[in-house]
Design brief:
Blueprint (H helix, E strand, L loop, with lengths): L48 E4 L2 E5 L18 E6 L32 E2 L9 H8 L3 E10 L3 E4 L8 H12 L3 E8 L5 H4 L3 H15 L3 E6 L1 H5 L2 H17 L4 E7 L7 H12 L6 E5 L9 H20 L3 H5 L2 E6 L1 E2 L5 E2 L1 H14 L3 E5 L25 H7 L2
Parallel strand pairs: 4-5, 5-7, 7-8, 8-9, 9-10, 10-11, 11-14
Antiparallel strand pairs: 1-2, 2-3, 5-6, 12-13
Helix pairs in contact: 4-6, 6-7, 7-8, 8-10, 10-11
Length: 399
Amino acid sequence: MKLSRKLLVAGAVALTGTAAAVLPMATSNAAAACAPAWSASQVYTAGNAASQNGVNYSGKWWTQNESPATHSGQWDVWKNDGACGGSGPTTPPTTPPTTPPTTPPSSGTKMASAPYVYPGWGNPPAPSTVAGATGVKAFTIAFVLASNGCNPAWDGESGLTGGVHASYIAQARAAGIDIVPSVGGWSGNKLGPNCSTPEALAGAYQKLIDAFQLKSIDIDIENSDEFENAVVQDRILNALKIVKQKNPSVKTILTFGTSPTGPNYFGTRLVQQAKALNANIDIFTQMPFDFGGGADMYGSTVGATEGLKNLLKTTFGYTDSQAYSRIGISGMNGLSDQQELTSTDTWTRIRDYAKSKGLSRFTFWSVNRDRGCAGGGVVSNCSGIAQADWAFTKISAGF
């Protein structure tokens, strides 16, 4: 995302996330007592206990509205602690459970819409404010860069677990919003060129996954240092292959620029190398803007998406529906860097197209800019057009 580096705001904020109280598991001389019944609205953190259908579970990391009965596989958020039924703080359900699945059902690759937020600039809105007004369920948080070599850090400066980014993530999760960190972007000191081997780069990605117990990771591969660099492209792909092997449930996303008719030379190479290296990428997300002043942003976005679909079909042997299910759209609300105009009406049409084709990811740059300022130009804290606050986020949430 190009605008991301133009108006960087310095500063750090202490971590302010609020953790739920630990729910102790009671004991019984006969069978383990049932912990308090799981609640979809309750926030649970690592070590919190809950019961469902006569089984005790303990949380591995932060979770909300993820049923233990269907989210207790090897790579999922809950640990199955076994049957319960002794006297305890709550009464187990009176209806006998059906046989629960041993692994969670597949949800495919489709994700909740996750608009980009940059906590470092552009007057970032409070997550609870945006969630309450729009119903958005996820944010993509920008950007993780390199610090002192191959070490991941927000903006390349503030580490991972401290500062304004970590504080914002804690607030988002407290508001029921999942997060997808974005690694890279248009400018800055990036991990791809700084990590000398795929193994080192995968290790940097793993630090990010472990720090926030991620379900997804977005690699925003741009500019001549990564996107237009064959060595670094391959390093990133091989690193994501390692990540996927170690974290099978974590979705891997590649985000990159495009032409109005689909991937350019470097985008085509990226997709074909993903196949050649068996990188097992879940989602290929294109950024259909900055075409050089294109007037029809709906037509250009559809053309770019159809071009990527055709490339995925020929490269991987997918059907139309399989190819669409591996594609994402990442637009730019209001005025793009090159003054291309995407109105709320146009964005609604793009969203409806994405839904109709079964695309897996739908996002835009950025929530910071999702406020009206007609005639305001291309700036960090508003869209440059007349609009209601959070209109693009609300449209996206309908994906």
